[in-house]
Every structure is written in C-alpha cells, then in structure tokens.
Write a structure and sequence with these properties.
- The complex is a heterodimer of chains A (454) and B (310).
- Chain A has 454 residues and is mainly alpha-helical.
- Chain A has 3 domains: 95 residues, no CATH class; 275 residues, no CATH class; 37 residues.
- Chain A is 76% helix and 1% strand.
- In chain A, strands 1-2 form a two-stranded antiparallel ribbon.
- In chain A, helix 1 packs parallel to helix 3, helix 5 packs parallel to helix 10 and helix 15 crosses helix 17.
- The longest helix of chain A has 32 residues.
- Chain B has 310 residues and is mainly α.
- Chain B has a domain of 205 residues.
- A two-stranded antiparallel ribbon of chain B has the order 1-2.
- In chain B, helix 9 runs parallel beside helix 11.
- The longest helix of chain B is centred in the N-terminal third of the chain and has 32 residues.
- Chain B starts with 13 loop residues before the first helix and ends in a 14-residue tail after the last helix.
- In chain B, 52% of the residues are buried.
- The mean pLDDT of chain B is 86.
- The chains are: A mainly alpha (454), B mainly alpha (310).
C-alpha cells in the first residue's frame, strides 16, 4: 500500500511546516473541506493513486489544523522527522515489492539529482551528460562484481558489493575531474552540447569494445543478498530498498555538509560572478573542477546502486532521454536546493509511472491517448510546472509556505534547551501551586501566620 | 605495410572517395539546414531549441497525411513550409515568451518538455499501422554519373534545395528592412526597441523562420531515413554538433559546420580501421573532433567572443 508511506511522509512534512501563510484557520478549514470533497469524488470514480494523494493531502491539512496552535513548531518538526524515519524503516513491511523497487529507483535518481544540482544549481555549469557518469559507475561495479569470469583479465573472485560502490565513486570522480578541466574553457550552451556529446558517444563505445563491457548484451551481476544478521528478516528486494535509501540519505547529508561549508559558498560565489569570486581570493578553476568531480562522484555512486538493484547493466540502461531528464528533474524540483533534488527524483520516477493512472481517473479522457502517448502528459506537466513555478517546486515552497532546512535544524537544536526550560518552568509551577494550595497547611499557615506579626 | 584503411585508400579508388564526399555533402546540407534553424533561434532568443527536430517531425508527418489524402506534391510542400512557420511562431508566443525573463535553464527545460510532448503526440496520432512510413521524394532515387562519382538524384536535390534556402535567407537578412530589424534585435534588443523595431514580433519571426527551415530539412530527410516519430533525433544531434562547431551565433558557421560534420561522418565511417573504430564509431569520432575544436575555439569557428563585463 503506497498510501501508507505517502501518508506518513506528508503528515510528517505538513506538521513540520508553518501553514499560516495559506490563510486563516477558517480558510484552511475550507481547504480541508475542498480536499475532502475531492477525496469523495475520486473514491466514487474508483480508487487509485489520485484518491490516495487526496487522502494524504487531507490528512496533512487536518493534522496541521489540529496541532498548529497547540504544539510548538520544534516538537512538530521532531515528530515529522521521527515519523519519516519510522516509515522509511517500516516501508519493507508496508509496501508492495514493486513500490519498493520504485522507491529504490527514486533514491538512486535523487543521488544523481543531488550531484547534478551541486554542479548546475550551485556552481552554474550545465551538464546534459550525467547519464554517462551513471553508466560509468554502473559498469565499474558490474565489472568488479563479475564472478562468472565473463572477462578474462579481471579477478575471478568477485569484490564485495559495497567495495564496488566506493570503486565506482572513485572512478567517476576521476572521470569528472578529467572532464572538468576541458569544461573550464566552455560555457553555457557550448558546455551543454559537449556533455551531450559524451552521453551520446558512450553507448557506442561500450558496444564496440565488448572485451571489457560485454557489448550490447551488457553484464549480469549477482544482486547482493541481505547481510547475514538480517537474512531471515529481510528479502533481497527489501534489503536493496534499504540499501538504496540509506546510501541516498548518507549522500544527502554529505552534500548538505559540503554546501554549507567554505567549498559550498565558493561554488555559489563562482556561479554568481567568477570575476568577483577571483577577486575575493577564490581559485575559480579549482572550485569549478571540484564541482565537476563531486558531481560525477555522486552519479557514480548512483550508477553502482543501479547495477545492484537491476542485476544487469546494458549500454541502453541509461539513455539520452534519461540523461536529459536529470536536468529537467532538478529544474522542476528547484535549482540550488537539496529539497528540490529530492522532489526531482520523485518526479523522474513517479510522473511517467503514475501520470497515466492519474488522468485515467478522469472520465471522458480518451484511453487510447494514455496508452499511446504517456510522454505527452510528462511533457505537458514539465512545461506547465516551469511556467507556473519558475524557481521549481522547492523554490515556491521556500518562498511561500516553507521553512528553509537551516531553520528546521535551528529548531531541532533548540529542543534540548527548550525542554529544559519547559521542565524548569513546570517545576516552578508545581512548587508555586503546592505552596499556594490549601493542602499545604504548614507553609501557608506559617506564611499567613508570620505576616501579621510585627 | 600496415592496413590502415578499412576501404581502399582514396588514391587507389577515387570514385569511392568522391561518392563518400558528395553524399556527405548532401546529408551535411541537411544538418546545415537544421543547424541554421538552431542558430536562427539562438541568435534571436538565446535559446537552444531541443524541440527543433520534433517540430519538423510533426510537420513532416502532417505532410505525409496530406499526401495520403491525395493533395498534389507541390501544394503539400508549400503547406508544410507554412505549417512549420506557423508552428514556430505559435510555440514562441505561447510557451517561450513567458519564460524569457526567467533563469536561462528554464527555457532549455521548456524546450525539452516540448520535445517529449510533440514526440508523444506524433506517436499517438500516426503510430497506428506500420512504421516506419515511406515518404516519397519529388527528385527520385535514380543514380546519376557526375564526373567522379555516382550519386542519387535525391542527393543532388537536397544540395539544390539547401542552396536555395540559404540564398533566400541571405537575401532576407542582408537586403530587406525586415532582415535588418531581425539582425538589430539579435544584436541589441534594448536599442532596437528604442529605434522603433517591434522586438517581440522579430523574435516570433525568428522562431517562425526556424520552424520553416526545419520543416524543409524534415521533408528532405524523411525519404532517406523513412518516417517514424524519432527520425529527426539523430539529425538533431548532428545539427547541434554542426551549430556548435561553426559558432552558435553565426549562420555561415552553421552551414560550414553542417557540411563538415556530414563529410567527416562519412569519411570516418568508411576509412577508419574496423577493428579499432569502424562505421559504428563514426558518431563518437565526429563528436570527438567537435570537442577538440571547442578546446581551441570555445566559441566555435565563426562565433563571436562574449565580452565579459564586471
């Protein structure tokens, strides 16, 4: 049941944010009513993804309405994160396997999107060729994990899967470094086309030199089984899901750390004005190459996970369209925003998969159209989102109803102090109430008895 | 002696070399037309139009339907060009204009969205029945002997049509007041507006011309590759390479780039040793040349160097 994961995440999300800008309590109650009617309509039309979505939105708004005036925001944020973590860990038991597979892919594309966002969103260098890095990472993993001796010169003992993730990251980091140097001379559309050339050429190269890559059939690998301690608890798909999402979270945290540090600020400074950044003492070339390297490294990790998840990798696993869609995803999600990268990852997987279902619930919509032209919905949604939200979903979120992640962190940090203060105040209140109460004979008597005394 | 060439060396078999060059020039002039369309749009609105090929594809499919309905060939050709013109203008007005003052990546993503959208629409309308569909050419496919090589009449037709289109565009830009306005807009929109040029209309016209030129390219390619919803993709990629090679803001550069890419592609496919490169590596090799050229001329062969203001 996908609805449960969505429910958890959305309730968590919405209770974690302030919704006052959406209007007064009355207005938000009206919004809840509208959503309830929508839910009813879609329930009558037949259950589906939209019904779940409406249900989730309704639950989120209601949860927010109920808690907003009574529970301080920092507790709601803590609750939100707790709920998200619980649902992430519980998902293998709540979701069907194909949903788990879908969310594993979301996690992988989120890693790519975070990497691309570092390069394009934060550092201002366009790349249409990140699919190439994903492929390089995937092949690195597949070649090292090979235990069938498909390849003559590689060690017959397969490497453990997690070492190949690191190896893929290193190989792609080096590739990104190597590409970053010529990229210094190119800007804007010229860089875009040059990176496009990379992703177009790579499949032909992989097919041609098949001694290493297995040619057009690609390479098969044994998907990693659950670790010994968890073997009885988890199936392989569930383990892969936890692996992908876990790695994605770690990569998100690393990116967050990089971006708020000196290097991240240098990225933004170089993007906004290379000349000004150089005047401030930033080594522009080094920063731009660093962005390329880190970005490619992220794509490599994602590629490695893709190999583990699919168990097979071919030159067509990541094609030109997918590669271009990475850019679409981060623009729709929101440039220069980690939240945007997450949203982009979801859009990349769920829009093509669920778009036809969503429209399929609308009566009188030509069925033929949905079967023959699923891309039409995707294209139209992309165009409309960019027209309506020029700074992406995350941009609109930050602008209108959102709390920037930094403030969430600040709120989280203040929790211990807040709790202590609350405890202290509570103790004071109790002491005060006890001393004033009629049950406390001694102190009240002594107090009242002493006062009249001269 | 080491066997370097896959085919007989050019000096042993000049006819083969001549054929490869001339057919390269023919496909190259198609790339040149699409590259020209990309350059027209890039000059006027600073956008790389990823949907250029799909716009042409839609027009070509419409022409196929018209031909099937029994319209005479020449009527269909003119309707096709008009359709391309109208589609370009419509796209600029409806979805490009609103994102023009937004972050530059937004326009790129809008054209990518349009790419996917148009491709799906064409699949929906025309994918019933068998694909690819045969698209006839008014020039025919008979082989003719020119002095050095045997080429098809269609190749010659492509060269002639491309030359006509380029001549018309040259006359339009350099010898009419409209062309002057368009050049002024591309050069400096703000000043042109102050001088009384209707800048919005010029931008729309740039897109419309690009749409028409793209449509011509589409109807020239279709007889060779046959007609299916993705048939312009390969052409578009080569055209990007050509446009960047020549410089994105230079129309003569687009033509030179297109011809170069067409000939280079053919020669790489024919003459490189098969065990290392061979025909399937001609696209990577062509793109490698492009990237090497960009290393030395980051703005393309004929592009203007962007001055940097602090």
């Amino acid at each position: 049941m996908s609805v449960w994961l969505f429910l958890g995440l959305l309730v968590a999300f919405s209770t974690g944010i302030r919704m006052q800008p959406l209007g007064s309590v009355v207005q938000r109650a009206i919004l809840a009513g509208v959503l309830a009617v929508g839910l009813l309509v879609f329930l009558l039309l037949g259950a589906g993804f939209v019904t779940e979505l409406f249900g989730v939105l309704l639950a989120a708004v209601v949860a927010n309405l109920l808690t907003e005036n009574y529970v301080p925001q920092r507790y709601r944020i803590a609750l939100a994160i707790a709920v998200a973590v619980v649902f992430f860990l519980a998902a293998p038991w709540l979701l069907e396997n194909f949903r788990l597979f879908q969310f594993s892919r979301v996690a992988i594309w989120v890693i790519v999107a975070v990497g691309l966002n570092i390069l394009t969103g934060y550092n201002g260098q366009i790349s249409l060729g990140h699919g190439a890095f994903v492929l390089i990472g995937a092949y690195t993993s597949a070649i090292l994990m090979d235990d069938q001796q498909q390849l003559g010169f590689v060690d017959a003992n397969a490497w453990p899967f997690w070492t190949t993730i690191i190896a893929a990251a290193v190989v792609c980091g080096v590739a990104g470094f190597a590409l970053g140097i010529p990229a210094l001379r190119l800007s804007g559309p010229y860089l875009a086309i040059a990176t496009l050339a990379l992703v177009i050429s790579l499949p032909s190269i992989l097919r041609k030199y098949d001694g290493l890559t297995g040619g057009a059939q690609g390479l098969f690998v044994k998907q990693p089984p659950p670790p010994p301690g968890l073997a009885g608890v988890l199936e392989r798909d569930e383990w892969l899901y936890l692996l992908c999402v876990g790695v994605a979270i770690v990569m998100m945290l690393i990116a967050w750390g990089i971006l708020r540090g000196p290097l991240g600020r240098a990225f933004v400074a170089v993007r906004d004005s290379e000349v000004a950044a150089a005047a401030m003492g930033i080594n522009v070339a080094r920063v731009k190459i660093a962005a390329f390297t880190i970005s490619a490294l992220y794509a490599g990790v994602a590629g490695s996970l893709l190999t583990q998840l699919l168990g097979v990798i071919t030159p067509e696993s990541v094609d030109l369209i997918v590669s271009i869609n990475f850019l679409t995803a981060i623009v729709i999600g929101g440039l220069a925003s980690l939240l945007g990268a997450v949203i982009g990852g979801f859009v990349l997987v769920l829009l093509p998969a669920e778009g036809p279902d969503i429209l399929g619930n609308i009566p009188l919509f030509p069925d033929n159209f949905l079967q023959k032209a699923p891309g039409a919905i995707q294209g139209a949604v992309v165009i409309f989102v960019v027209l309506l939200m020029p700074f992406g979903v995350a941009g609109s979120y930050h602008r209108f109803i959102g709390t920037p992640p930094g403030r969430i962190i600040a709120a989280l940090r203040s929790i211990p102090a807040g709790l202590r203060a609350r405890l202290a105040r509570t103790r004071e209140d109790i002491v005060w109430a006890w001393e004033d109460s009629p049950f406390n004979r001694r102190s009240s008597k002594s107090a009242s008895g002493e006062e009249p005394d001269p | 002696m080491i066997e370097v060439f896959l085919a007989p060396a050019p000096w042993n078999d000049p006819e083969l070399f001549g054929e490869q060059v001339i057919s390269g020039l023919a496909t190259g002039s198609i790339y040149a037309l699409v590259a020209l369309a990309i350059v027209l749009i890039y000059r006027s609105t600073d956008v790389i139009n990823f949907a250029q090929g799909e716009m042409a594809m839609l027009v070509t499919f419409s022409m196929w339907s018209l031909l099937l309905a029994g319209f005479p060939a020449w009527t269909v050709i003119f309707i096709g060009i008009a359709l391309g013109f109208a589609l370009g203008a419509f796209v600029e007005r409806t979805i490009i204009r609103p994102v023009e003052d937004k972050p530059p990546l937004n326009v790129v993503v809008v054209t990518l969205g349009l790419f996917v959208f148009l491709n799906s629409i064409a699949t929906w309308i025309w994918a019933q029945g068998e694909l690819p569909k045969v698209f006839s050419t008014p020039f025919g496919f008979t082989s003719v002997d020119v002095s050095l090589a045997r080429v098809t009449t269609h190749s010659i037709g492509i060269l002639v049509v491309a030359l006509i289109v380029m001549a018309v565009l040259y006359l339009l830009f350099n010898h009419t007041k409209l062309g002057l306005g368009m050049r002024a807009t591309a050069h400096n929109p703000g000043a042109s507006r102050l001088m009384g040029v209707n800048v919005g209309r010029m931008l729309m016209l740039g897109w419309a011309l690009a749409g028409a030129v793209g449509a011509v390219a589409g109807m020239l390619v279709a007889p060779i590759t046959f007609l299916f919803p993705g048939f312009m993709l390969a052409v578009l990629l080569y055209a990007f390479a050509a446009a960047v090679f020549g410089g994105l803001d230079s129309p003569p550069g687009a033509i030179v780039g297109g011809l170069f890419v067409g000939v280079a592609e053919n020669l790489f496919g024919t003459y490189t040793p098969g065990d290392i490169f061979g025909p399937e590596m001609k696209l990577p090799l062509t793109l490698l040349v492009l990237v090497i050229v960009l290393m030395f001329r980051p703005q393309g062969l004929f592009g203007r160097v962007q001055t940097r203001r602090v």
